[in-house]
Amino acid sequence: MDKVTQIQLSLEQLSLLFVSSIDSINKSSGFKQVDSHYPITQKNVLTDSSKTSKDHVDEYSTQILEVSKKIDSLIDSLPELELSKDIQTEVNNKERQLRTLQRDLDDEVLKAKKFSDEISGLFNKVTEV
């Protein structure tokens, strides 16, 4: 399995740990009434009553730290992207060209909008007569 896929799977695992930890905290906490239209009737009950909410938090915290460290080490092990000066110069030139073309495109769109507004105004004048 390549490193990018390992990072992706680790990120998925990390997100599941976050969701599970929030769910565990939510289930073990007491309810607080926030809207009188929705009465609270009973507290959520954890299926594993042998663990306290602190035990759950500690367990998830440890797992989250382990997965985060794994992701960091995988990212650090990725090869660095090294561009030669010629390639970097070419990339910079292409970026400048792209910005110039974008400005030209914006100018042309503005001209087309003005022209369209003028034509609409002329049609309005013709239809009024």
From TrEMBL:
Its job: Component of the Mediator complex, a coactivator involved in the regulated transcription of nearly all RNA polymerase II-dependent genes. Mediator functions as a bridge to convey information from gene-specific regulatory proteins to the basal RNA polymerase II transcription machinery. Mediator is recruited to promoters by direct interactions with regulatory proteins and serves as a scaffold for the assembly of a functional preinitiation complex with RNA polymerase II and the general transcription factors.
GO CC, alphabetical: mediator complex
Coiled coil: 84-118
Gene3D superfamilies on file: Mediator complex, subunit Med21 (6.10.280.10)
Record bears the keyword Coiled coil: yes
Protein family according to the UniProt entry: Belongs to the Mediator complex subunit 21 family.
UniProt keywords, alphabetically: Activator, Coiled coil, Nucleus, Transcription, Transcription regulation
Transmembrane regions listed in the UniProt entry: none
Pfam families xref list: Med21
Subunit structure: Component of the Mediator complex.
Protein name listed in UniProt: Mediator of RNA polymerase II transcription subunit 21
Gene Ontology MF: a single term: transcription coregulator activity
A GO BP entry: regulation of transcription by RNA polymerase II
Compartments reported by the entry: Nucleus
Keyword flag Transcription regulation: yes
